Amino acid sequence: MILLKKGDTVGLTSCSDGLRPEEEPIVGKVIHTLTSLGLRVKTAETIFQQNDKPFSGSPAHRASELMRFFNDPDVKMIFDLSGGDSANQILPCLDFAAIRTSQAMFTGISDLSVVNNAIFARSEKPSCHYRIKNLAGLFAAEQKKFFEDYIMGEPAPSPFTYRWLRGHDMKGIVIGGNIRCFLKLAGTRFFPDTEGKIIFLEALGGGAARMASLLAQLDQLSVFRKCRGVLLGTFSEMQKKELKPSIEQLVLEITEKYDVPVAKTEQLGHGGDARCILIGSPLSLN
Questions:
Q1: Which top CATH class is 9-151?
Q2: Which active-site residues does the annotation give?
Q3: pLDDT tens for residues 238-257?
Q4: What's the rounded Cα separation, in Å, for the pair 239 and 217?
């Protein structure tokens, strides 16, 4: 499935915490790269922090700008530039019926995991777990080529490499993302059904104790009992500091009683070289 082609229009917004003023050059680089790839770019009113607050606008305003893109027949993909803590504020304001029929695909990572999964839970529409700011990061040249090959080209069955920790096969619709943010949806109408799904998990901050706690919550929600497999992305702080027990050990231990397949990739997560995975879309690993 080719997600974008030359001449298409994309939108930029910030549904979570607004960007700081000093990040304006990063946005400029992203726009420059997108236009150099032959894409047209529309920007939302809600990108940067406003009124001395950490938000790019009120929850209603952020949701309205997002819906403006979903309702725009020209917009093919929506790239969220933000991250942080506040994306779940907008969920009650979204029109999921309109999102379901929109041709636009939402794209974001980190705190935007709440939006990715809510969109699938309420509209059965896939989203893309990808950080568009990587186009202006340390691996900008490599990311531009990946964007051109995968998002604007015919993608390979799996755009990332992985290794098996348990088992050798998993197949199902992918849900999840940032583990902390995914769990914000627990107990709400925005939490997706985990039955038969592949659970994708990654994290930026947090040590072994925090990850153990979050994994325990997932287990107490019966996520690991119901799922078809677990795909681990990068857990940045744990891996950088080589904290023990490792994320691999923690996940293998808590899922042992279910004998669920577990795989690990270093190409999905918060790294500047990270690739993308579709949330709410089928994936087969073997």
A1: alpha beta
A2: 110, 202, 270
A3: 999 999 999 999 999 999 99
A4: 22
